[in-house]
Amino acid sequence: MFPPTGDLEHLVNELKVELSSWQLAQALDERDPLKSLRSEFVIPKRRTLVPDGTDVENPDVDGTYLCGNSLGLQPVRTRQLVNEELDAWGALGVQGHFRHPKNRDWVTIDDHVVQESAKLVGAKASEVAIMNSLTANLHFLMVSFYRPTKDRFKILMEAKAFPSDYFAFESQVRLHGRDPVDTIIQLAPRTGEYTLRTEDILETIAKHGDEIAVVCFSGVQFYTGQLFELSVIAAAAKKKGCMVGYDLAHAVGNVPIKLDEWDVDFACWCTYKYLNAGPGGIGGAYVNERHAKADVLRLQGWWGTDPSTKFEMDNVFRPIPGANSYRVSNPNVLATVSLLASLQVFSLTTFSALREKSTLLTGYLERLLYALPQHGRQFKILTPSDPNQRGCQLSILFLEEGKMMQVFEALAREAVVVDERKPDVIRVAPTPLYNKFADAWRFVTVLKRTLDGEEEKGKTIPAAKGLVSS
User: Fold this and answer.
1) pLDDT in tens, 32-42
2) SS3 category, 416
3) Which residues are 246's β-sheet partners?
4) Least confident of 175-189, 302-316, 435-449
5) pLDDT-based confidence at 2, cuts 50/70/90?
């Protein structure tokens, strides 16, 4: 099993090895109680990950994929589930809506993913709808929850949130005839700092709360990897009478979420990152049950009305109680079963077990980075060190102009997949469902050699280190 309370020193002392040794990475992988989950995913090979025309040693060995914060890997069972739907379509045509050989009638296909999705966000199934995409859902929810008045009309968000969030807020503000400059409060970190202090968020809510209609932060900040204190922010905002919403794109499947317990009003998320539902995967939305009222202003569609009467075609909208009243059309079946494939893998363990591994895995990566002589001179970590203030992602800031892209390209040539954010940040996200401690070790090893200036064309880490294993 893992070292008690995630204490890496315990295992280092037990094995009498160095923290940065391959032996420690191997021991951590051997003791990982979740290691079997890796076999549930299609791990890309080195030969498919390197740039075209690049020679790589051991091309049929698993690559080092640390980019689940951008796009999760494909579950093995996805192909089977998608093919089953294609077969049903071919065999039954329109009849697949009501009689399905696998008991997944298309007319209720999203019923198969709502319960597990609700568990991941700490909600009741009736409060969750699987529909649309992230930003579309944010727009749908803002129609209901951003109802500006003469005195309460502002929106509070973090500065440098993902641009799509800002675009949604800006357009919603303009639709109400207001100027975004005077309406949207973008809260930035203090000068010289990279992450927001909770005390500054609370101070802003206390100072401007009577003017704020909606407080909407990311769960995990996409650029820095900071996990906001969502329960504390929600409590402060509710005390001032604000609506509270969260963009959980980088949080769902990554960190513990308790929307009901935190008394959040609404939330939305995508499913292609840590939920592994594939590129452009279907979105998710949460609406607290206290807002499940027939007279709530919402964008309406046929799929949000009472299914027992919808085929009467009488143009009377009878909202389904709960979040499903926000559905406007039937969900994409192939996208929905792609999500189902991943949720079935999540159901093989508990989220607390995933979080325990994630905390240790990212902590191990952080320790390896701190141990490099270049830390502080050539790069630094933007993400908070406190595990309670981050998920699995670490954001690395390179201090020399142009260095980040050099490193990123060197990693790519070694089949190490991470994410870059120009001009100077690489995001690394070891994901507990399928990443190994060896993945973190290999990333840091390639990084060190690159920063040491030792990279040579065609040179790779020796296979004798044991990295030929999957």
Assistant:
1) 999 999 999 99
2) strand
3) 217, 267
4) 302-316
5) low
Lowest mean pLDDT among 25-39, 56-70, 413-427, 448-462: 448-462
Q: What is the pLDDT of residues 94-127, one digit of tens each?
A: 999 999 999 999 999 999 999 999 999 999 999 9
Is residue 398 within 8 Å of 426, Cβ to Cβ?
yes
> Tokens 């699995």 map to which residue?
392
- 58 touches 46 (CB < 8 A): yes
Tokens 């009736």, residue located = 126
Say what the alpha-carbon torsion angle 131, 331, 344, 75 is, to the nearest 10 degrees: -100
Query: Which tokens go with 233?
Result: 């922010």
Instruction: Please name the residue that has the structure tokens 């968000």.
Output: 157
| CA nearest neighbour of 439 among 73, 55, 3, 17 | 73
Cβ 135 vs Cβ 164: under 8 Å: yes
Cis peptide, bond prior to residue 423, ω within 30 of zero: yes
Nearest 5 degrees, angle CA 187-CA 193-CA 197?
50
Q: What is the mean pLDDT of residues 161-180?
A: 98
Tokens describing residue 173: 């503000």
CA atoms within 13 A of residue 405's CA, in its CB half-sphere? 4
Sheet-wide strand order for 154-158:
128-130, 284-287, 266-269, 243-247, 212-218, 154-158, 184-187
- Count of Cβ atoms closer than 10 Å to residue 321 Cβ: 13
Q: For residues 395 and 113, give the distance between their C-alpha atoms in angstroms, rounded to a whole number.
A: 31
Nearest to 154 by CA among 231, 267, 240: 240
The gap from C-alpha 259 to its chain's centroid, in whole angstroms, comes to: 16
DSSP string computed for 13-80: HHHT--TT-HHHHHHHHHH-TTGGGGGGB-PPBHHHHSPTT---SSTTSB-EE-BTTTSPPPBHHHHH
> Distance between CA atoms of 280 and 276, rounded to whole angstroms?
11
- Are the beta carbons of 220 and 390 closer than 8 angstroms? yes
User: What is the rounded distance in angstroms from the CA atom of residue 428 to the CA atom of residue 397?
Assistant: 11
pLDDT at 36: 98
Q: Supply the mean pLDDT for the chain.
A: 94
pLDDT digit string, tens, across residues 74-99: 999 999 999 999 999 999 999 999 99
Which residues are registered as beta bridge partners of 287? 266
Instruction: Locate the DSSP E strands across 161-241.
Output: 184-187, 212-218
Give the long-range contacts of residues 397-405, CB within 8 A, separation 24 or more: 397/194, 397/424, 397/425, 398/424, 398/425, 398/426, 399/424, 403/378, 403/379
pLDDT tier at 8, thresholds 50, 70, 90: confident
Q: What is the reported pTM? A: 0.94
